[in-house]
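Posting for a labmate who doesn't have an account.
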Amino acid sequence: KKTEVDLALVDFQLRGTQKGIELLKDPVCPMPPVVMISNKVGIHETAEAMKLGASDFLVKGQSGAERILSVIRNQLLLSEELREKFERYPLKGSGAAMTRLRDQTMRWAGSAAPVLILGESGTGKEAIARALHLSSPRKFKRFEIVNCPALPETLAESELVGYMEGAFSEAKRDYAGAFERANGGTLYLAEVGDLSPSIQTKLLTILSDREIRRLGASRHQTVDVRIVAATNRNPEEVLRPDFRARISEVILKVPPLSERREDIPEIVACWMERLCAEEKRVRSVSPEAVKLIQAADWPTNVRGIISFLRQLIVLGKEEAVIGADEVHTLLDSDALQDRDLFDFDLAYSQAQICFDRELLTRRLALFEGNRTQVAESLGISRVTLWDKMKRCGLS
């Protein structure tokens, strides 16, 4: 738990009556591939280990050097793949709230129980769902996402269960639905509260029977899928009681960033490194600038900070270190997006930003985005125009 490892080679019989298989029941984040080593283990023990997520088995005295090296090479490749997936969706934050959530996530990772994740938009519900999957025995199977708000009711059933060629006029070929694609793995229902009651009823039947039938097919097929759902709404208001009960044996609540501000410096450090690599720029944030970011309001949570940092990297100054003044300017611009120019509470500098934004927005529309013509019409240089646009959040 204290040291990240690439591969765990675990003796089935550790010491006395202690069994190595117990380690699989207490996963860590990220959970490495585990290869069990044994003298002689029966079919029951082997099946239990594989069910709990063991990647392979080596038998003492029977597995030759070539077999051992092959297993280790293959598992290290899988380990690298898993680590890359974890790094794409990091669970950053060492504060009490995030530590508790991460611990709950790991405790439920090895279970087959359906999980409902609650939290505001941008808090990282998908990252929690992926952590559940990547730390589970299903980690080498598919993590399938269904974006419920983008699922039209008329197409929902065909997308979920699939169809056979000729099932309807547009069915030109056989199509595997989300449940079939996720077989053996995890099906993530993003913003499940947006599903209509009729689709919830159909899903309830599938979850009860663990069977699907493609549209146009004559036979049912069994599916083994763990359901992880998420919503930013009150589940009691948007989910049928029977459906809600079926998908929420476990409930994980992701706290908004306003309740875990102590994690913001860690989040900033993590995403600055990643975004700089993506944008091929070398920039860092000064301690004073981090404090400003930490004190600001982030209604869109972690997603908002990521967007803000990308703006600093791409649209910011040439200096390598991002100072407090640069952060302050961009924060002011963001905070003033919807403010009235004549708002009594605005300071002169803030009113100036509102005025410039309105003026520049109209001129840009008038000249169809041609910045040279906008600059000429205002009697300023393109450099000055660029600076004003950045200050107003228009660049």
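Reply:
Got it, the structure tokens are right above this. The chain has a mean pLDDT of 87.
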